[in-house]
Each structure stands twice: as C-alpha cells, then as structure tokens.
Amino acid sequence: MKGQSIIIPYHRDKEMIRYAVNCIVRTVPSNVEIAVVGNNYFSEELDVNFPYTNVKYFRIEENLFYPRAINYGVEHTSGDIITLVDPDVFVKEGWYEPLIEAISHNDIGAAGCKLINPSTGRIIDFGIAHTKVNAVHPLMGEKPSYPLASESRKVQSICSAVLTTRRSLFELVNGMDSNLPYTYTDIDYCLKLGVIGKTTVACANSLAYHKGSSDPDNSKSYSFGYLNADSKAMFYEKWGDRFSVDFGEWFKISFSFFRKINNNFARRVFLLDLSTVYYRDYYYGLLKEQGIEFLERYVIPVKTRDIDHLSLHKIVAFDIIETAVPILYFVDSFLELFDNRLWFDSRNISRDYVVDRNGCIHMLSDISNHVC
User: Which is the most buried residue in 2, 136, 212, 356, by most CB within 10 A?
Assistant: First the structure.
C-alpha cells in the first residue's frame, strides 16, 4: 500500500481540535498525511494553527456540512488509505494499526474502532445494526472489556467518527452523499460498499474516546442538529427496503450469551416496558423467539429517549414491587436503571432482568450490585 491520509472535518471549538490533532500526531507514523478541513461562515472559528509538518490545514469560510467536508479532504489528499476522524474524537495509543491491518484484506471495505464515552468509559459505538425503522447500537453502554466486545465483528455499518477505507473504493462509490448533510452519511457509505461486495468490520482492539452524543453541545449537534430529522428521512427514502434488517441476528447472539451465564433466568415474566420504542411488537417478537412468555404486560411510555436515569419508585405503581412474578424490564438503555436503591431493597429481584433496545441484557441484581 502507498501513502496514508487522515481527514478531520472541523467546524468549531479551537481548543478541542488542537487537542484531537495532538492525540493523532502522537499515535501515528510521522509520514501519515493529516488534513484538517476547517469550514465555518464565522471566520474567527477558523483561527487555529497546527505546528506539525505533516498536518495540512484547509480554511474554508463556508459551512460545508459533514459529507462535503470529507469529500473535500479526500480530494485534497493523496493517500491510498484514508482514515476519517471526527474533531471530537480523542484516540488512544494503538488505535491506528488495527484499522490499517483490517483494511489490508481485500474483502474489507471499511474498518472502524470501538468508540468510548469519555464520561463513563463505556462503549458508545461498536458497529451499527438495523431494525426496520431505526439504526441501533449493539453493546452501547457495556464496558470495553465486555466479552461480546472482545472480538472484532463484521457489521452492516459503522460510525464514521473513526473509519478507515481505501481511496479506490471511496471514489468507486462516489464518496460521501452530500444529500445526507447530518446523520446516516456513514451508514450510507457502508451500505454502498456492501452493494459492491465489500465487508465492514468493527475492530475490537482499536479504541478511541468520542464525545459525540454523550455531549449535547458537541460541535456537530450544536451547529447542525436541526438537520437530523431531514437526514434520516432522506436516508430511508434512498434505501427503503434495500438494507438488511439485521438486529434480530445480533439479539440472538446477545441472548445466547445471557442464557449461558444466567441459566436461572425466568422464561415466564411480567413485562414492564419503560422504553420510548414505538415499534414495540418487533422487540416483543424477538423475545418470544427466545422462549419468553409474557404473563402480563405493563407499558409506561417514557418521553425522553436514552434518559440518564429512570426512578422506578416514581414512575411505576408501588404494588408492582410486590408482584411475585419475575419482571422483565424493557428500556432504552440498561444504564437508566442504576441507582434505584429503594426498588432493589424492597423487592426480590433475584430473577428479574433487563433488556434494552440495543440488545444489551443483564440481570437486575448485577445492575443493583454494579457488577455490569
């Protein structure tokens, strides 16, 4: 392989981009070309310097949006291997080599890393799966050392906060689609690779911290979050039924692992649905495929997706604490149920367990004891 280029789109937060670039420079070979594509109508945001000979800085007094900024960076660099890195990603030592090794295999078209929430130290992204109506993130919220996250995975798509690909493939599929200005651009790119027979892989031994959705004030959402709904709508209009609804495959893997380490879990349960999911029957069907029977179902729609914390004693009727039937809690994220001391101490939770919309499954006692 010939040269290698790293492309970083930059819009705002000068201190952050300087630190992000410093992290990259310290962790990649000195002959790797690094291009920062600064773009903003407000020129003062572009007043930033990078004191490295292998860093190119493009200053464009215009809002290019993500796909156009990436395409510009690819056009103005020369590496045969291209790695995209978001400006709010802070890489860890050893992050780069696994991506380069993965993309050296001809069947692999894109490789991404295990992205870590900088606040919690937990996985924020490690490959993307799909239901009919949403992209979901298997293993989101798990610790980086979680057994199912210990091996690289072939996936339908990955987050392009860190994404390595080959220039020849990027050009063959016409790069990033500028008609998807905010979200789903990366998924679209991976699906286009799939159409030409190339695989996408999430690399287990490549790690980086990503502010991303963990910070509502991150550069992308702060400046362009209003485009989210339109971008998603345009993605589904473009791909329709052409992508694979593959979340069920991941759910089987996750539930099989849960069953293996918790052979005493209950098959006949009281289903307590505290999620924001509208497409509930799809998830209920996946559970029934695993032999779960709902003796009773109680739905309390939560109005905020991926809320930081659910206080069970505030939103669930107290008489449910005393039900003798094991409870299966269906939530957006299993992390929402940490720190429910009154509930944990007032109820026999030994056979209760939690399933979230990303397919993470844990015994409630492990959540109570902070084991997971």
Answer: 356
